[in-house]
Amino acid sequence: MAYEQVELVVAGVSGEIYMARVLNDGMMSNSRRKATDDCLRATTEWFMQNKKKMLQFGTHNPDIKATLFYTSDTEKAKRILEILEEE
Question: Residue 15: which region, alpha, beta or left (left: phi > 0; alpha: psi -120 to 50)?
Fold first, then answer.
């Protein structure tokens, strides 16, 4: 797999993240590797290394801004989850 042709994509059915070549029709090629755990681990380590607590970024939908939070405090994590589950 030539890396310049590789993208991180989310599978529509399973929701898993794959490192794969995307074909002209928008589908993933058969040469792909599941990368969900690697992506989550690298993201967590990025938050820790850069001493970040929150990150906001745009999505494919211009009306939606995504926000990620990081804490190693389990009590804070519970409170954040309670707030998020109110929606």
Answer: left
DSSP readout, the chain? --GGGEEEEE-TTT--EEEEEEPTTSPEEEEEEE-HHHHHHHHHHHHHHTT-SEEEEE-SSTT-EEEEE--S-HHHHHHHHHHHTT-
From CA 61, how far away is CA 15, in angstroms rounded? 18
Q: What pTM was computed for the model?
A: 0.76
Residue type at position 33: R
The pLDDT tens digits of the residues spanning 21-31 come to: 888 887 888 88
Task: Answer for the pair 28, 18: CB distance below 8 angstroms, yes or no.
Answer: yes
The first and second tokens of residue 4, run together, are 């310049």
